[in-house]
């Protein structure tokens, strides 16, 4: 959250910021911010604040996003298109090197400056680009077989957008993003707000 806040400040042209300003941007209080940043060292200047670009670099280095991380995206439907066109990946150290799809009608299509390639090319792409991170944006029914191929090819971290739970061996990290569940959580909170307002009134 701090990296995102600092990136936003930098994009707005802010060069220095106080702990209060950064805390507000990150959605935390300034005491928590100072405590969290103390684990990285002392990067603030009393009376001046934080150098936005320098602190952003230090946090990015600490969490491993200063290096170039090649990424492959499998499944170039609507969601795959959106992910391929997301500019935030590159600004945070993630470079999409290939877009893959099992649908032959999609191969050769250009999306975000990359030609969609056949899923059969996965192994050679992973080897040629030293890819360790894969993104799955396929229908649920295909996700497990895609994950299996990714793991066999040498990918050790998977971001899964398919609405299904993946089974992977030890040593492979999976992060699941289920947009419908996130919407359900928001709907739950809206329902609680509605009930609370009815009780108050």
Automatic annotation (TrEMBL):
Q: Which residues form the CoA-binding domain?
A: 64-165
Instruction: Extract one GO cellular component term from the record.
Output: cytoplasm
Per the record, the domain of life is Bacteria
Q: Where in the cell is it found?
A: Cytoplasm
Please list the residue ranges the record marks as binding DNA: 1-40
List the keywords (alphabetical).
Cytoplasm, DNA-binding, NAD, Repressor, Transcription, Transcription regulation
Write down a Pfam family by its short name: CoA_binding
For the ligand (NAD(+)), the binding residues are 75-80
**SMART domains in the cross-refs:** CoA_binding
Give the Gene Ontology MF terms in alphabetical order: DNA binding; DNA-binding transcription factor activity
Q: Name one GO biological process term.
A: response to redox state
Q: What is its main location?
A: cytoplasm
On subunit structure and binding partners, the annotation says: Homodimer.
Q: What role is this protein assigned?
A: Modulates transcription in response to changes in cellular NADH/NAD(+) redox state.
- Which family is this sequence assigned to? Belongs to the transcriptional regulatory Rex family.
Return the protein name. Redox-sensing transcriptional repressor Rex
User: Gene name?
Assistant: rex
């Amino acid at each position: 959250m701090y990296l995102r806040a600092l990136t936003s400040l930098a994009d707005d042209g802010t060069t220095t910021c106080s702990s209060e300003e950064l805390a507000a941007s990150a959605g935390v209080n300034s005491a928590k911010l100072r405590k969290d940043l103390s684990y990285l060292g002392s990067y603030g200047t009393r009376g001046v604040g934080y150098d936005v670009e320098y602190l952003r670099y230090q946090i990015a280095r600490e969490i491993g996003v200063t290096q170039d991380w090649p990424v492959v995206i499998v499944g170039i439907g609507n969601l795959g298109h959106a992910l391929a066109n997301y500019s935030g990946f590159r600004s945070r150290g993630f470079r999409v090197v290939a877009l893959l799809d099992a649908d032959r009608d999609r191969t050769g299509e250009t999306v975000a400056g990359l030609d969609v390639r056949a899923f059969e090319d996965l192994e050679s792409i992973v080897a040629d680009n030293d890819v360790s991170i894969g993104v799955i944006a396929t229908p649920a029914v295909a996700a497990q077989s895609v994950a299996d191929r990714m793991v066999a090819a040498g990918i050790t971290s998977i971001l899964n957008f398919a609405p299904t739970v993946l089974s992977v061996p030890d040593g492979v990290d999976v992060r699941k993003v289920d947009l419908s569940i996130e919407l359900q959580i928001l709907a739950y909170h809206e329902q609680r707000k509605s009930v609370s307002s009815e009780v108050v009134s």
